[in-house]
What we know:
Blueprint lengths: L12 H9 L4 H13 L2 H7 L11 H11 L9 H10 L1
Helix pairs in contact: 1-2, 2-3, 4-5
Amino acid sequence: MVAKKAVTGVKNKALDKRLRNxxxxxxxxxxxxxxxxxxxxxxxxxxxGAASSYDNLKVPELQRRAKKAGIKGRSTMNKxxxxxxxxxx
Length: 89
């Protein structure tokens, strides 16, 4: 019997890794990496909206976004921790 490889949603792993290093969330980077396989990258990036950088937001806004994302322990996190948690979600 042949072992099956685990199926990941990301087809363009290099693009996904570059986006993650730039601070894009895991969900968004996977979406863009998947879309880049079907369409050229210029078209794929044009379809998505311009995401704001978490670094430019104040703590109360980061806490609201963390609440919406379902992140636990957000009220005791500082800005750096909130940004890291949001990017990982």
